[in-house]
Amino acid sequence: MKPWIALLGTLVLAGCSEGEVTEVARFPSPVGGLDAVVGTMKAGEAQPFLVTMTKPGESPAKGTRVLLADKIVAPKVEWLDADHVVIRCDDGARVWSYRNFWTNGTATVSVGLECGTKGWR
Questions:
Q1: For 19-67, how does the pLDDT look when each residue is reduced to its tens digit (9 = 90+)?
Q2: Burial bucket for residue 87 (CB in 10 Å: 0-12, 13-18, 19+)
Q3: From CA 102, how far away is CA 61, in angstroms rounded?
Q4: What's residue 118's pLDDT?
Q5: pTM
Q6: d(Cα 19, Cα 52) in Å, to the nearest integer?
Q7: Which helix (H) or strand (E) holds 5?
């Protein structure tokens, strides 16, 4: 019985992928080694934008998502320094998810958000 439960759980998780992510813009860290990538994906009838943190050259689908929002044009990303990044987008944005930091276990980046005043708060 336990092998069947494990198999079923694996199949369910495999079906929960984000789908195809298309890169829109890439913003390299000022010290290198990390990129903030703006992308878009198909999510049912919506096509939200996302921001992920990835290694340079890596697909945004492989990165850690820090923002998912729709009802906007592509978000703008600005690195304040190697440890601080700010994401800006339209006030009318509907923020689906937001994460205020990224870490890989040895480095941590603070992620600020300046958008979605009608949807996030």
A1: 689 999 999 999 999 999 999 998 887 889 999 999 998 999 999 999 9
A2: buried
A3: 15
A4: 59
A5: 0.79
A6: 14
A7: helix 2-14
